Amino acid sequence: MDNSFRLNCIYIDKLNSQVFAGIDFEKLGQSYQTDFVYAKEILQNMTELFKDVYGVDYLACNEEIEFVDVPAVIHGRNNDGMCIGLVNLDLESSGEHWGTCFITEEGIGNHNEKDAAFNELLKSKFVPYDYWYTIKIYGDIHVDMDNVPKEISELLNFDNEPTLEHEM
Fold this sequence. Notes:
Distance between the termini: 29 Å
Largest sheet: 6 strands, antiparallel
Order of helices and strands: HHHEEEEEHEEHE
Number of domains: 1
Number of helices: 5
Radius of gyration: 15 Å
């Protein structure tokens, strides 16, 4: 098992046990409808855990790590649905997007879930979508830092650092 795969497995395992297991989805849904304070707290915990596991607060494309899951804010283009989640990126392909895990008021999952109601929620609120991640990723050719909406930038900047955008 290569080191990047090992690190990503450790990160996902720790997210499941240390962050996701404690999410109050009702509170998260209220946060999405009001001030995003609780959502931002979860996103910050996800980011801090990433930094602890990887030992860095940035990554670079075309270096040692191939696939990586990073914390992100997801925003529906057509309907203003917004949530936090994870995006899976191929850093060997300059940040190519491979998948998204949505953390919604109804639970955690992706658009390939077997649950039809969850898939419909994702489709109605988020598809198509843009996302912005909390970890700096140098060399991502898909990044456009000039188009991060202000409300999303505020969610991403718990350290007052620049944010990155990636459109799907």
